């Protein structure tokens, strides 16, 4: 886990590259004015040093505060593990308790901590104002949820969101000869209603560029940017690369973040798939205004355990009623391999399914889709 090592070695608030203000000290009285200005900058820079340090600490505190807000909502994933636990003193000895401090407690937490550092670097490279300019050049948004609804109504089957996924932390490499555009085209001709393209590089070997390439190749299916979104910057970036929908993971994001990001997506006319894994997350998400599209992940992202009956469990009783009343489209996600699995989640109430492994592993992708549904869905 090399990501972990880099997180430990570099506390998050020192990760941002320091901007150095260069200059020469004045050596004589007849100095050109530019040199004087530079000298003043040097003096100011050294005066500002303590303020900069203080700011960095403040940024750190905000990160820790985020953890507290999240914890109050039952979110276990910390975005920035504390950089060190308080020392315990017993007699003359001092020690730290095991697994306190900055050790991620699960793979999901490790991914999120790494993402936090990654996003801070991206934001430095491309500040929001310059990213917003790129949006004007982005291709038009397509109706992701509408495409799923249309297929579901036309065929009576759940609409397929086929995932362009090279690897995952739980399964390793799923497909060696990985050409995202060819895979996307095959999925489209195999009857997929929409596509999901992994954008995370470190853990899933995906990229935003893969998604952009799929979009530029003329694939008509609307695209979900499959990324661990923790900052609005990523939403704008996804849109600039041609995404029509994004994923928000309730296990990672506090309610206020979800509600804020859903609003941003509405403004951008994008769909927001809000992913839940247990009853508590489902109840939280159902209380957030504007949520119209929910994914139930059968995989626990902390332990990797997969259980398709999770979809059924979360759609039973009152929760199912609310979902039907509000006409929320639910997606059954992960671990779907056979026509029986599809029938099972459909029976539970989903109108769409998100499938990666079982189809991306097949040498003939079109056949893979037909096998998953037990029939050729491209003929509908
Ligand atoms: O490959 P599978 O088991 O068919 O799963 C696809 C998709 O559900 C899974 O990739 C996924 C669902 N939610 C996520 C969040 C992050 C990364 C990946 C995921």
TrEMBL record:
<dbReference type="Pfam" id="PF00218">
    <property type="entry name" value="IGPS"/>
</dbReference>
<dbReference type="InterPro" id="IPR001468">
    <property type="entry name" value="Indole-3-GlycerolPSynthase_CS"/>
</dbReference>
<comment type="pathway">
    <text>Amino-acid biosynthesis; L-tryptophan biosynthesis; L-tryptophan from chorismate: step 4/5.</text>
</comment>
<dbReference type="GO" id="GO:0000162">
    <property type="term" value="P:L-tryptophan biosynthetic process"/>
</dbReference>
<keyword id="KW-0057">Aromatic amino acid biosynthesis</keyword>
<dbReference type="GO" id="GO:0004425">
    <property type="term" value="F:indole-3-glycerol-phosphate synthase activity"/>
</dbReference>
<keyword id="KW-0028">Amino-acid biosynthesis</keyword>
<dbReference type="InterPro" id="IPR045186">
    <property type="entry name" value="Indole-3-glycerol_P_synth"/>
</dbReference>
<dbReference type="GO" id="GO:0004640">
    <property type="term" value="F:phosphoribosylanthranilate isomerase activity"/>
</dbReference>
<dbReference type="InterPro" id="IPR011060">
    <property type="entry name" value="RibuloseP-bd_barrel"/>
</dbReference>
<dbReference type="InterPro" id="IPR013785">
    <property type="entry name" value="Aldolase_TIM"/>
</dbReference>
<keyword id="KW-0456">Lyase</keyword>
<keyword id="KW-0822">Tryptophan biosynthesis</keyword>
<protein>
    <recommendedName>
        <fullName>indole-3-glycerol-phosphate synthase</fullName>
        <ecNumber>4.1.1.48</ecNumber>
    </recommendedName>
</protein>
<keyword id="KW-0210">Decarboxylase</keyword>
<dbReference type="InterPro" id="IPR013798">
    <property type="entry name" value="Indole-3-glycerol_P_synth_dom"/>
</dbReference>
<feature type="domain" description="Indole-3-glycerol phosphate synthase">
    <location>
        <begin position="108"/>
        <end position="372"/>
    </location>
</feature>
């Amino acid at each position: 886990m090399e990501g972990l090592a880099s997180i430990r070695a570099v506390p998050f608030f020192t990760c941002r590259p320091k901007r150095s203000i260069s200059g020469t000290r004045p050596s004589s009285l007849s100095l050109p004015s530019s040199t004087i200005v530079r000298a003043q900058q040097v003096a100011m820079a050294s005066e500002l040093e303590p303020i900069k340090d203080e700011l960095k600490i403040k940024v750190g505190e905000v990160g820790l505060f985020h953890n507290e807000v999240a914890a109050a909502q039952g979110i276990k994933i910390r975005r920035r593990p504390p950089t060190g636990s308080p020392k315990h003193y017993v007699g003359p000895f001092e020690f730290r308790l095991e697994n306190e401090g900055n050790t991620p407690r699960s793979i999901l937490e490790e991914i999120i901590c790494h993402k936090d550092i990654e996003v801070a670097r991206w934001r430095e490279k491309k500040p929001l104002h310059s990213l917003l300019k790129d949006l004007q050049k982005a291709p038009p948004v397509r109706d992701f949820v509408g495409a799923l609804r249309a297929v579901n109504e036309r065929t009576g089957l759940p609409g397929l969101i086929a995932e362009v996924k090279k690897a995952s932390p739980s399964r390793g490499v799923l497909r060696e000869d990985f050409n995202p555009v060819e895979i996307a085209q095959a999925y489209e001709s195999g009857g997929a209603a929409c596509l999901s393209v992994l954008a995370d590089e470190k853990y899933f070997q995906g990229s935003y560029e893969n998604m952009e390439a799929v979009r530029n190749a003329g694939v008509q299916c609307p695209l979900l940017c499959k990324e661990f979104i923790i900052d609005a910057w990523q939403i704008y970036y996804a849109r600039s690369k041609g995404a029509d929908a994004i994923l928000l993971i309730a296990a990672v994001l506090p309610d206020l973040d979800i509600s804020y990001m859903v609003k941003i997506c509405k403004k951008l006319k994008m769909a927001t798939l809000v992913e839940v894994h247990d009853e508590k997350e489902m109840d939280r998400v159902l209380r957030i205004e504007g949520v119209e599209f929910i994914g139930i992940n059968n995989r626990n992202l902390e332990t990797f355990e997969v259980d398709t009956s999770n979809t059924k469990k979360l759609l039973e009783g009152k929760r199912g009623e609310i979902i039907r009343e509000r006409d929320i489209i639910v997606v059954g996600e992960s671990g779907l391999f056979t026509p029986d699995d599809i029938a099972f989640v459909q029976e539970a109430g989903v109108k769409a399914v998100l499938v990666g492994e079982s189809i991306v592993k097949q040498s003939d992708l079109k056949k893979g889709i037909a096998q998953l549904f037990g029939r050729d869905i491209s003929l509908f």
